[in-house]
Amino acid sequence: MHVIATAGHVDSGKSTLVRALTGMEPDRWEEERRRGLTIDLGYAWTTLPSGQDVAFVDVPGHERFLGNMLAGIGPAPVVCFVVAADEGWQAQSSDHRDAVLALGIEHGVVVLSRADRASEQRLADVLARTRAELAGTGLRAAPAVAVSAIDGTGLPELRAALDDVLARVPAPITTGRVRLWVDRSFTITGSGTVVTGTLAAGTLARGDRMELIGHDNSRPVVIRGLQSCDTARDSVEPVSRVALNLRDVPAAEIRRGDALVTPDAWPSTGVLGIHRSSGVAYTDVPEQLMVHVGTASVPARLRPFGADHARLVLDRRLPLVLGDRLVLRDPGRHSVLGGARILDADPPPLLRRGDGANWAHRLAGMDPAGDLLGEVAARGAVQADHLNRLGLLSGQDPDPLPGLRVLGEWWVHAPVLEAWQQRLRAAVEELQQRDPLAPGLSMGAAAGLLALPDERLLRHVIDGAQLEADGGHVRLPGSQGMIGAVGTAVAELERRFTADAFHAPEADEMAALGLGVRELAAAERTGRLLRLGGGVVLLPTAPAMAMRELARLEQPFTTSQARQALGTTRRVAVPLLEYLDSRGWTRRLDAGHRTVVR
Question: What is the pTM of this model?
Answer without folding.
Answer: 0.70
